[in-house]
Specification:
This protein has an eight-stranded mixed β-sheet with strand order 3-2-4-5-9-10-1-11, sandwiched between helices. It has a three-stranded antiparallel β-sheet with strand order 6-7-8, covered by helices on one side. 37% of the residues lie in helices and 18% in strands. It has helices at residues 3-9, 23-28, 34-45, 69-74, 88-97, 108-117, 139-153, 191-198, 239-242, 252-259, 270-273, 292-300, 302-308, 315-331; strands at 14-20, 49-55, 61-66, 101-106, 125-131, 157-161, 174-177, 182-184, 221-225, 245-249, 263-267. The chain is built from 14 helices and eleven strands. It is of the alpha/beta class. α12 crosses α13.
Length: 333
């Protein structure tokens, strides 16, 4: 790939279908493993530090400072609730003042906050990567859902994965209990996904998000799933199992970062990326009454609300949905 030609052209964003060269990394990632590639470059080649979102011991999404790739691995995988930034911004400033290279990854609003807070810092190198964000529910709602899972099963949730690839590249939430048993694809395990995609329990600001744009994004690069890649010339046979990333270089700095990565970057177009990534153009929206789920949550509890709003589907509907999924897999569709 001729990065010099892309730089001379000066047209941004530059769009790529991207895959980590290590299939094991791709399998452990939500999409194509580009967060790992960015982090590996900053920690390994630039001797820097990385900030990303990880689950803590209580399964709360929190930003952490990563000095090693073992720390970075904790941040792999999607987190579908708002991350607690803690004192990350102050730490980023201190790292930059000490001359470190820093990679900060997060939602566009988090990245914009870091860039604004560090604009006056001299020294160090700040690299930022935002995600194509669907919006974030309150972390307390997610904690409430974990509590409902534990009450329903009478066991502690030891691990929660929103999008493991045990069933391929997609969205099949998996719960691991304290005895090591796992639950995936059941009506209970899938309920949070339904709540999330219904959009009515996102933060109010998410419906007016100013960062759902194709250009002028806050990150040097944007990383996401390349949903719909199967309908483009960039599809490959292993994508259904391992995933592929959509990557945008939002300016010259982003393009310089990408050219240093140990990754397979294939030029694509925004027209190929947009059909299945609408949050590049608009914020999340919802249908029906917005306040109903919230009133139900406070009056009757989360589980009762989830049943009424059909986030927790009936056993019959769950069985039919699983049967349909199996048939699609058998028929290869």
């Amino acid at each position: 790939m001729d990065f010099e030609e892309l730089e001379e052209r000066g047209e941004y964003p530059v769009v790529f279908a991207a895959r980590n060269l290590d299939d094991g990394v791709r399998r452990r990632s939500s999409s194509g493993g580009m967060y790992h590639a960015l982090a590996s470059n900053v920690i390994g080649d630039l001797s820097g530090v990385v900030y990303g979102c990880a689950f803590d011991e209580e399964l709360r999404a929190s930003h952490i400072r990563c000095e090693t790739m073992a720390d970075v691995e904790r941040c792999m995988g999607s987190k579908y609730s708002q991350s607690d930034m803690g004192n990350s911004i102050r730490q980023v400033r201190e790292d930059l003042e000490d001359g470190h290279a820093v990679l900060f990854t997060g939602t566009p609003c988090q990245v914009a906050a870091v860039r604004a807070a560090c604009a006056d810092v001299e020294g160090g190198v700040l690299v930022t990567a935002d995600i194509i964000c669907h919006g974030v529910p309150s972390p307390e709602v997610f904690q409430g859902w974990l509590a409902e899972l534990e009450r329903a099963r009478g066991a502690r949730v030891a691990r929660y994965e929103h999008r493991p690839k045990s069933r391929g590249w997609g969205h099949f939430e998996r719960v691991t209990w304290e005895d090591g048993c796992t639950e995936q694809g059941t009506r209970l395990a899938e309920a949070w996904k339904r709540l999330f995609y219904d959009n009515r329990m996102l933060r109010p600001s998410c419906y007016r998000c100013p960062y759902t744009v194709t250009s002028g994004r806050p990150g040097d690069v944007t990383i996401a799933d390349f949903w719909g890649v199967e309908g483009t010339p960039h599809a490959r046979g292993d994508d259904a199992a391992l995933g592929v990333s959509l990557v945008l270089a939002n300016g010259p700095a982003g393009l310089r970062v990408l050219r240093e990565l140990d990754a397979d970057l294939e030029p694509a177009t925004m027209e190929e990326a947009l059909p299945r990534n609408p949050m590049l153009e608009r914020p999340s929206t919802y249908e029906g009454e917005h306040d109903g789920p919230w009133r139900g949550l406070y009056s009757d509890g989360l589980l009762a609300m989830a049943r009424r709003e059909r986030y927790l589907v009936s056993p019959a509907r769950s069985l039919a949905s699983n049967a349909k999924r199996v048939m699609k897999r058998i028929l290869g569709r």
